Amino acid sequence: MGHPEEVDVIVCGGGPAGSVVAGRLAYADPTLKVMLIEGGANNRDDPWVYRPGIYVRNMQRDGVNDKATFYLDTMKSSHLRGRQSIMEGWTANDLLPLMKRLENYQKPTNNDTHGYDGPIAISNGGQIMPVAQDFLRASHAIGIPFSDDIQDLKTAHGAEIWAKYINRHTGRRSDAATAYVHSVMDIQSNLYLRCNARVSRVLFDANNTAVGVAYVPSRNRASNANVVETIVKARKMVVLSSGTLGTPQILERSGVGNAELLNKLNIPVVSDLPGVGEEYQDHYTTLSVYRVSNETQTLDDFLRGDKDTQKELFAEWETSPEKARLSSNAIDAGFKIRPTEEELKEMGPEFNELWNRYFKDKPDKPVMFGSIVGGAYADHTLLPPGKYLTMFQYLEYPASRGKIHIKSANPYVEPFFDSGFMNNKADFAPIRWSYKKTREVARRMDCFRGELTSHHPHFHPDSPAACRDIDIKTAREIYPNGLTVGIHMGTWHRPGEPYDASKVHEDIKYTKEDDAAIDDWIADHVETTWHSLGTCAMKPREQGGVVDKRLNVYGTQNLKCVDLSICPDNLGTNTYSSALLVGEKGADLIAEDLGLKLRLPHAPVPHAPMPTGKPATQLVR
Ligand SMILES: Cc1cc2nc3c(=O)[nH]c(=O)nc-3n(C[C@H](O)[C@H](O)[C@H](O)COP(=O)(O)OP(=O)(O)OC[C@H]3O[C@@H](n4cnc5c(N)ncnc54)[C@H](O)[C@@H]3O)c2cc1C
């Protein structure tokens, strides 16, 4: 049966926030017709989505990846910082019940910040790699204490076995669509899911009331590349949940944005909101890769495509997914950190100014996150053989800002995007500091066998801080019959001594030149964590706000934004949680507007098909 041309509520975008809104509303009232329009493919029971250990496959830029859209910086720019106060109804105390409502927390805990019967399972995954314990011991040795929960809304300096959105009973990723959308579609018929469809614009009546949307196929294969739109009407509400990068583009194509830009593009102005698409934020990441001993358990052979290893790991999944190695993403431990007084002195005036203004009196705000991956998080065709671990350094509250704007009313035209990364100098010091911290942790791990020099700052070869690659003993174990093992011409390969972690007590000393080398490396390699937020901020209109505290878009009716674009400031969290939370809050607000009561707990989460012991189809799409 075809989908209706008119429904009650249209949700545009089926990421975590949109899935929560669509699923919660549809489940609340089986007579309410809800349509969820999603640009990507349906993920229902897709083994390339639900197995945590293969997630990198979904990030390959191979041209046929229907699970990702890639945004490339088109220009550079510079922005100033503008922190905002919290709006009424959005304090941690207001949101805590909603955080609990979404969780099915499966870790032991000593605090009361978690929920136990929500749709999203959280656990350590089925297997914890031994490098995680090695990491925790080494972190403790440099003053980062162990905690059993650094996500308790208070801890800002501590290390833990990393919690993940994985159901420990099934080994599966706890994705929002399965939890909130497929669960409802299994038992009710009022939720319509339209995938591979890109919302081009919102339709308004003469009073600026949203009355529907137009969408186009995600890929334009129409004759003459014409834009062929389909219209769906919404009787009650249009919700934009297309994410930090998608939502502002839809608004601008609909006439909601900076009037100057819209006039240039011949788009009739519905609401002049210069804040649309501005203040883009992210968590910035750099990653450094280390050599580890050949006995260390890592995912390298699996990731580089070793056939026997892949066969073994896939087979393990098919028989007991709940404890298979693929039931984890190999990111098994991590920390949040704040600098000491001594460390602050070395972090320069720009960061100290930011510290005094923003962090000093907020002991629950971490400056950096760090985490360990049991394997090289890199293209393995570009790496030497052997085993690796990767240290991630994440900047939680960057001062830099970016922006995204459409270049055309045509939904297929790529936008202008400036991530703004590092355009505020204050962001260098914390990343530099945490590079040093993670390096000190790595050096103290039992498995450590040197730095993969290509993935570290290029210090002067004479500097005591210069990186040292794999020692010859470990290298010989990799190629016992190799005729070139141990030769080194020039300085690019500087083998370390055979390693003994128990002898590491002193921290590496860095000179000004060393710090400059780290900053160059940061500038060259800093990356997204895909924790994008902030382009349709919830704050007063006169301050550049786009939505009010009920998530209504200023100057319009029946139109809300519900996704991470609404965040006026950054978040020291994993943003998937925050997106789900914004979805829960949005669902509450819309239910109130429509006079509905949400039904709790949510519809049962489907986990079919249960493993049969036979390999599932490994479709490469
Ligand atoms: C590779 C990767 C790894 C990540 N790892 C982690 C992690 O380990 N932990 C963590 O907490 N977070 C992680 N994140 C971040 C997390 O996924 C995001 O913060 C979260 O998904 C944001 O949710 P959202 O609902 O605001 O928007 P999105 O997830 O961006 O959802 C928006 C949805 O709208 C769709 N869409 C966009 N434009 C249109 C349109 N015009 N019409 C219709 N549909 C549209 C998109 O296809 C998408 O499904 C990761 C993200 C990525 C990409």
UniProtKB/TrEMBL annotation:
Residues 243-257 form the Glucose-methanol-choline oxidoreductase N-terminal domain. Transmembrane segments: none annotated. PROSITE patterns: GMC_OXRED_2 (PS00624). InterPro entries: FAD/NAD-bd_sf (IPR036188), GMC_OxRdtase (IPR012132), GMC_OxRdtase_N (IPR000172), GMC_OxRtase_C (IPR007867). Gene3D superfamilies: FAD/NAD(P)-binding domain, Glucose Oxidase, domain 3. Its cofactor is FAD. Keywords: FAD, Flavoprotein. The keyword Flavoprotein applies. It comes from the Eukaryota. FAD binds at residues 199, 530-531. It holds the Pfam family GMC_oxred_C. One of its GO terms (molecular function) is oxidoreductase activity, acting on CH-OH group of donors. Belongs to the GMC oxidoreductase family. This is Alcohol oxidase.
